[in-house]
Structure formats: C-alpha cells, structure tokens
C-alpha cells in the first residue's frame, strides 16, 4: 500500500520490474539536424509541437503538418486519416471516435463526438438472440460512420486546413505504400477466415489468397482515390451522396464469396441515415484530482464519467495503492453499467460528485469487495455507507486491443487527445468494393438484450455506449497531460492506471505507460498482465482479489507538458509492437 507522498518508493519498485527495461523516459533529445523521425521510438522530448501514435507513418504525417504551420487539429486529422491506411483494422473513414481538444487561445477544453450511430430502423430488440460473433461480421453491426463528419467539424471549428489538405499525407502513404510489420501481418492472419468469405475484403487484404508478408510494401490505391475524392467533394459525398449509397448497398448486400457458408446478416442503414448524421460538440466531463483538472468524454461515452468517478473515489480514500485502484475501478464500473448510455437523464453530475464518491469510497476496505458489486444510488443525498448486496451480472468478455489513440500538441499550445475506432480489429470485416476501406461494427457495443432497463440497448439514432476515454489534464489552467488508449472497456482502466501511476506511484509518464497493467471492471476476476501478477499477485490475492492473465492490455499514447514549452511525447515501448513519438524540434 502506498500512501500519498511516499510515491518515490513505489516508482523505484516499479522501475525495477522487467517491463520497464525498455528504454524509459528522457531519451536524449535529437541534436541539431539529427532527424529523429526516421526511426520508431516510444519517447521524444522537445519543442514546437509533438505527436504520439501507434504508427511511425501516422506520427510523421502529423509532424509534417505541424512543421508546415498546421495546428494540432490539422495534424490530428492527418494522423487519423493515415492510420486509416496503415492501421486499417483499427481506424478508418467509416468508423467513429472522440476528440478532446484544448484550445490554447481561449483556454477552453472542447470535445467532438464523432461516434457511429444506429440507423433509424434499429430497435431495442434488433440484436436480441444473435450470437455476438455473427453480429460482428455483418451489415447489421455497421453504425452510420462518424469520422468524416468529425474531421470536417474539427477542421472547420478549430483547424486551418481544408479536408483535402488534411488528407494529403494519408493519400501519399496509401499511394506509395507502407511496410508491412508483424502487427499488421498478425491482425490480417487473425481475420483471414472471415476476410476470405467477403470478396472485396479478400481482394484487398489477402492479395492472391495470401497474407501480406512482413517487410513487403502494402499499397491501397483505391483508398488513396477515395480520400482524394472525399477531399474534393467534401463529406456530403458520404453523407447522402454516391459514396454513401455504396456504403448502404454494401451493408444491405454484403459481398459474400461464392461458395462461402458464412451467414452475413444485412444491415438496416439507409441513405437517409447517412444524411441525418451529425458530429456533435459536447461539454467535457471534469473532475479535480488533487490540483489537476481532468477533462474527458461525456456520454454516450462512459470514458469521462467512469475515469472521473474512480478518481473521485480514490481521492476520498486515505491511501492509494493497487488494491484501492482496483476497488475504485470496480465500483465505478458498477455505476457505469447501470447509469450510462445514450439516454436522456444520465446522472452525470451526481456520478462525478464528491458526495457520491465518498459514499462509494466507504465501501472500500482491507479486503476486496465481492464482485460484481452493486451500483450505488447517485441521488444527491449521501450519508453513511449503504449496505449493498452483490449483483448477478454476466462476466465481461476479454477485450482485445482494438481501436487506436493519438495525441498531438502544437507550437501554440493547443492539445488533442483522439480515439478513433472501427470497433473490432478489422471492424465488421467488410470492405466497400473498390473503395479500399472497411466498415465498422460499432453497434456491437450495444447491449444485445433482453435487458429491461439497460441504458445501452439499441434504438433508432442511438449511439452505442463507448469506453473511449481521451483525456486532457490541466493544472492551473495550463495543459499538464494528455492520455488515452484503445482496448474496449479496458480503455477506462488503462487511462485510470496511467494517471494513478503518474500521480500516486510517482512514475514518469513513460514509466506510467510501460508499467504492467491490470483491469478490474466489476467482474469476479481481475485481468492482469504477467508483470503485474508477478509484482502484486501475492499481496492482492491475500486481500481477496483473483488475478487472471491477460497478456496485453491497451496501447496508450500520451503527452506531458514539462514547462517552458518543453513537451514529452510518449507511446508504448512494447505493446502492439510499440508506438511512435516525435517532436518538431529538440531545441527551443
Ligand atoms: N468500441 C469500443 C468503445 O467504443 C472501442 C473499441 C475497442 O477499443 O475495443 O469503447
């Protein structure tokens, strides 16, 4: 157990764990003329702008935009579009996502919700009885894409580039190609069984019937052309125009390979659903943890509310260690499940109130609370602890490292934290013929039901509850941190754990990202990486936790603002093949 203020000891312990043997923080800044961006490395420090993504090409795209005078929003859109080329199984123009943005000039945090949306014909029963895996690879799971509307809104509100200009780096990478790495190869391999059952997908990602070889160059001229036309014609080409019509046709009649026995259910999407789609600016969530103002995504994401509630619970406790981290997360997830979804009247203020957090915190004792724990009652009247019986709840399935998260800062001090996703690795598996991109399966984030009273049942025009938690932290009104991760509902715990690592365990940001992770989402067992089990297993087991191996949790990126204009950009050193951090200049 680690008391506040004895953090350095914990940092020393954790820094000794094998997971941290990878190059930690403070990699030497590049010397004059030394172009660090030629290699993929997880940490960079410097001035004038910074970026971290999972991918070197995407980070370079952002860096190029920053160097040519673009701002953080311009660079974030360029990086996201490039990830649609190089990480096409996690991100793309037919997906969705959330941007949290700090506008330096007005010193305000904004969010832009580009979440996919259910078609008008969707009903609470539309997914009932359908096996989850069948729904994943189907037209039915494809939500109305949000990314392009989000890019346009972000550029119009806060950017300086046109959509066409912001797409240029991605067009270049799609045309000239990128080098296939082990991650791309493995993700293709794990999708091969369904990709081969869809003609357009097999043609693009299993060329000649084979997996793209590691080290080979992968080109996507059709995607380059799609981006080019999108730049010229604008988002209306998708939201009601010809590209939209092709998406609808694909959703309704998925191009199943002749002879395949796979049932690929058609979807409910109409062109009118695309025409009705809007990206939306929403007020961010905000909690204050010690002196840090933590801003996140409001519903229908559960990211901001769940990270925020867990931080509030931790703050109400006298000491913060790994046990408390798991307990706070467990309780916050119980409340997430009951109260958060795309419904009117989510009790957000109460969920993020100090009174509610104190009431929840008083349940945390020496031993683990039996899970699943019951949700609390965020009714505004809080007193002594209420005895709450454990609830029965279906176990949360293991969630993979889907999706992607990127961070960008520019020379003016604007900051972006951006999660972009197509949900499963490979989305719904269906490439729109001739267009070079996969459709999302985001609607599988709805509760399938029957589940009376569940806030996350499907409905017409509804956005499925998300766990994405792009997060920006201000201290005294100035940016201090930006952080986020993929990983389904483990996103929430990854972001929370990084913040706890940074603040309560005294780690540097690179250490906080690299440290072994655990994820407690109100289930009987806590999933954890091997390094975490090795380090904390005996102590936590003695206190009633049950740890079970999850080999890899999350793939985070982050920024820390070190003062005087110096920024540290941080990506994963190992997970998902390691990410890429770059800065505009090593010198002021
Ligand atoms: N669909 C997930 C969510 O919105 C993100 C995908 C993932 O990371 O698995 O929470």
TrEMBL record:
Pfam families recorded: G_glu_transpept
Record keywords, A-Z: Acyltransferase, Hydrolase, Signal, Transferase, Zymogen
Disordered: region residues: 372-402
Acyltransferase keyword on record: yes
Gene3D superfamilies listed in its UniProt record: 1.10.246.130, 3.60.20.40
UniProt similarity note: Belongs to the gamma-glutamyltransferase family.
Name the record gives this protein: Gamma-glutamyltranspeptidase/glutathione hydrolase
Organism (species): Streptosporangium saharense
Lineage, uppermost ranks: Bacteria, Bacillati, Actinomycetota, Actinomycetes, Streptosporangiales
């Amino acid at each position: 157990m680690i008391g506040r203020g004895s953090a350095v000891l914990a940092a020393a312990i954790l820094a000794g764990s094998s997971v941290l043997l990878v190059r930690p923080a403070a990699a030497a800044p590049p010397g004059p003329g030394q172009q660090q961006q030629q290699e993929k490395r997880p940490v960079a420090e410097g001035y004038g702008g910074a970026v971290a993504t999972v991918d070197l090409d995407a980070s370079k795209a952002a860096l190029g935009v920053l160097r040519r005078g673009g701002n953080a929003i311009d660079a974030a859109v360029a990086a996201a579009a490039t990830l649609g080329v190089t990480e096409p199984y996690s991100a793309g123009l037919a997906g969705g996502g959330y941007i949290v943005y700090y506008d330096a000039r007005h010193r305000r945090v904004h969010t832009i919700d580009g979440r996919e949306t259910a078609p008008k014909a969707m009903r609470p029963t539309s997914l009932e009885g359908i096996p989850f895996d069948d729904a994943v690879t189907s037209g039915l799971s494809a939500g109305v894409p949000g990314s392009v509307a989000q890019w346009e809104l972000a550029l119009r509100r806060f950017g300086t580039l046109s959509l066409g200009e912001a797409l240029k780096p991605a067009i270049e990478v799609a045309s000239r190609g990128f080098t296939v790495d082990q991650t791309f190869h493995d993700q293709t391999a794990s999708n091969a069984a369904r990709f081969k059952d869809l003609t357009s997908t097999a043609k693009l990602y299993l060329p000649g019937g084979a997996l793209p070889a590691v080290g080979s160059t992968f080109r996507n001229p059709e995607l380059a052309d799609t981006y080019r036309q999108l730049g010229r014609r604008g988002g209306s080409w998708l939201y009601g125009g010809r590209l939209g019509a092709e998406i609808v046709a694909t959703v309704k009649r998925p191009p199943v390979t002749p002879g395949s026995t796979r049932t690929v259910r058609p979807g409910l999407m109409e062109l009118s659903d695309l025409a009705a789609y809007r990206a939306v600016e929403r007020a961010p969530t905000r909690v204050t943890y010690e002196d840090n103002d933590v801003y996140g995504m409001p519903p229908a994401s559960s990211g901001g509310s769940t990270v925020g509630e867990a931080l509030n619970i931790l703050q109400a406790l006298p000491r913060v260690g790994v046990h408390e981290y798991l307990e706070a997360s467990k309780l916050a997830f119980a409340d997430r499940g009951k109260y958060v979804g795309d419904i009117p009247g989510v009790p957000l203020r109460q969920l993020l109130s100090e009174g509610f957090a104190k009431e929840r915190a008083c349940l945390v004792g020496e031993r683990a609370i039996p899970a699943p724990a019951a949700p609390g009652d965020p009714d505004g009247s809080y007193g002594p602890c209420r005895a709450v019986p454990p609830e029965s709840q279906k176990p949360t399935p293991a969630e993979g490292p889907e999706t992607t998260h990127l961070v960008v800062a520019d020379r003016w001090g604007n900051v972006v934290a951006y999660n972009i996703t197509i949900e499963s690795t490979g989305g719904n598996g269906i490439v729109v013929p001739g267009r070079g991109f996969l459709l999302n399966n985001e609607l599988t984030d709805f509760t399938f039901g029957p589940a009376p009273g569940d806030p996350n049942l499907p409905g017409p025009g509804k956005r499925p509850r998300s766990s994405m938690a792009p997060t920006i932290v201000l201290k005294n009104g100035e940016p201090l941190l930006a952080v986020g991760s993929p990983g389904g509902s483990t996103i929430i715990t990854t972001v929370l754990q990084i913040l706890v690592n940074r603040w309560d365990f005294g780690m540097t940001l690179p250490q906080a990202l690299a440290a072994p992770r655990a994820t407690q989402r109100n289930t009987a067992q806590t999933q954890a990486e091997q390094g975490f089990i090795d380090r904390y297993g005996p102590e936590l087991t003695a206190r009633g936790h049950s740890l079970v191996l999850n080999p890899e949790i999350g793939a985070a990126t982050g920024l820390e603002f070190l003062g005087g204009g110096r920024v540290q950009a941080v990506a994963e050193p190992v997970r998902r093949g390691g990410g890429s951090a770059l800065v505009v200049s090593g010198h002021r």
